[in-house]
Amino acid sequence: MRAFWRRLGVPGLVDVHTHFMPEQVLRKVWAYFDGVGPLTGMEWPIAYRREEAERLALLREFGVRAFTAMLYPHKPGMAAWLNGWAAEFAGRTPDVLHTATLFPEDGVETYAREAVEAGARVFKSHVQVGGYDPADARLDPVWGLLAESGTPVVMHCGSGPQPGKYTGPEPVARVLARHPRLRLIVAHMGMPEYADFLDLAERYAEVRLDTTMAFTDFSERLSPFPAAERSRLADLEDRILLGTDFPNIPYPYVHQLHALERLGLGDGWLRAVCHDNGAALFGG
């Protein structure tokens, strides 16, 4: 791990897609993966099934200088509670990027604003798990708030590993048409609709994509990144961010880095993706 980023001449990694959440919630997430739930539909062993303190120590040992606490509700009434936990977690974890979440429900604008005012630096939206339309009218003022404040939102909106009613580029395109300055980070490179989400990044200057699980052996078997689109990754060098899905990955963390390296896009691209772009976006 350290040999990788030291060779690039950066002080470490910035990972915009790591999961920390209340232990009882995380255990249920792991149980879902273990049970081959319908949103995964495949065997998915959790590589880093450790206690919270061990997971934090591992990230720091890997050289991850800044990371997120991606958490998300699957029903109304959860998001404000999760945001309270995330604020407490950020208060005792100086290297985490204070993360918040949302759900289309009454009061969402209020608790989203409270989270921003409390110092949230990034939001998480999970269209697949939440089963909601990101263009839902109840979320419109929240997207406006985040666009105005410059707060990024990492959104799982692609249709991998299983499509949902509101996954895919079309609902997201409707959001961006209304809020073109929204700092949207498309999780998983938009897998499997890679080209469509690259189109959105080319159309909107504040749209970014994270690498979470993309290009790995695991994902290439299921949703291979089109070889014809590889040159676009170089063109969008400043808009691609390292993401991993730690700890909920079925392979070692370092494999994500090796998967990016074997794209053959050069050390400058790797420096930008693995450190510089995230550091610039979050000011660190």
Write the layout of secondary structure elements.
Layout: H1 2-8, E1 13-15, H2 23-34, H3 52-62, E2 64-68, H4 79-92, E3 96-97, E4 99-101, H5 108-117, E5 122-126, H6 127-130, H7 140-149, E6 153-156, H8 169-178, E7 184-186, H9 194-203, E8 208-210, H10 217-222, H11 230-235, E9 240-241, H12 253-261, H13 267-282
Parallel strand pairs: 1-2, 2-3, 4-5, 5-6, 6-7, 7-8, 8-9
Helix pairs in contact: 4-5, 5-7
Organism: Streptomyces solicavernae
InterPro entries: ACMSD, Amidohydro-rel, Metal_Hydrolase
Keywords: Lyase
Structure description:
- This protein has 284 residues and is of the alpha/beta class.
- The chain contains 13 helices and 9 strands.
- The protein has helices at residues 2-8, 23-34, 52-62, 79-92, 108-117, 127-130, 140-149, 169-178, 194-203, 217-222, 230-235, 253-261, 267-282; strands at 13-15, 64-68, 96-97, 99-101, 122-126, 153-156, 184-186, 208-210, 240-241.
- The strands form 2 sheets. A 6-stranded parallel sheet has the order 4-5-6-7-8-9. A 3-stranded parallel sheet has the order 1-2-3.
- The protein is globular, with a radius of gyration of 17 Å.
- The model has no long low-confidence stretch (mean pLDDT 96).
